[in-house]
Amino acid sequence: LDIMKKYSIPFLTVSEYSAGKLRNMGLKGFVIHPLPYQLLPAGNKENTIIMVSSQEARKNLEFADKFFHPSVLDRRKYSAVKVGGGLQWAENRINISDREMNELYDKARFLLFPSLDEGFGLPVLEALLHRCIVISNNIPTSREIDMGHDIIEFIDVKNFDFSKVNKLLESVEEKKKDYDLWFRDYKQRSENEVKEFKEYIDERGWM
User: Fold this and answer.
1) CB 111 within 8 Å of CB 132
2) What pLDDT, on a 0 to 100 scale, did the predictor assign at position 7?
3) CA-CA distance, 38 to 105, in Å (whole number)?
């Protein structure tokens, strides 16, 4: 840290949330939100809810197991898949290929993202690019991805009423979401951030 401060070496991170922590340490730098590859056309979605995460405590697997419990989720209508393992009430898949992951995103109608804290939250972005309905804990990084477009359904995991899981899923399905407009604005922001960082590097002749 002292070297970075002394020689004005900038940090490069993927969210304003992460940047804020670094700035509080006296560092200066840039944010480049991960660039999306493309927005995919809507496919034939199935009533599958996926969760994509490791098994760290901050991923909030306990919440997901309650959400997927047969006494809560209508398992006659919805199925649940956990990529990364660790849940009792979902089909656990581990060590899947990129092709299998993309196929899963293509078919899934929902992504559940109950994380308590994230540096970014890549599954949220990936799911949106596959036009999945994202249900996320109301955390800063998911709000950054949403960009005020109401493209993500935010919940409060600490005060969530599990008796309303099925009503929640039905209600968010009915909402119209403009994925194309969101994608345009998100992509433009990322491209502007790349341009700003490149100009900074070019001015100093670092490349």
Assistant:
1) yes
2) 55
3) 14
Residue 47's alpha-carbon distances to 18, 110, 124, 133, 177, in angstroms, are: 34, 8, 18, 11, 18
Q: What are the start-end ranges of the E strands in the chain?
A: 11-13, 29-31, 46-52, 79-83, 91-93, 108-113, 133-137, 152-155
Work out the percent of the chain whose per-residue pLDDT is above 70. Answer: 96
> In angstroms, how far is CA 38 from the centroid of its own chain?
16
pLDDT value at position 35? 86
What pLDDT, in 10s, does the model give residues 174-194? 999 999 999 999 999 999 999
Phi, psi (5° rounding) for residue 88? -85, -35
Longest dimension (CA), the chain: 61
- Please tell me the distance from the alpha carbon of residue 59 to that of residue 77, in angstroms, as a whole number: 25
Q: Which residue has the tokens 């056309």?
A: 41
Closest CA to 70 of 54, 52, 57, 89: 89
How confident is the model at residue 189, as a pLDDT?
97
SS3 3: helix
Separation between Cα atoms, residue 50 and residue 143, nearest integer Å: 20
Cβ of 4: how many Cβ atoms within 10 Å? 16
Residues 6 or more apart whose Cβ sits within 8 Å of residue 187: 35, 36
Closest CA to 182 of 205, 150, 140, 156: 150
Cα-based distances in Å from 82 to 48, 90, 99, 136: 11, 6, 16, 15
Supply the pTM of this predicted model: 0.94
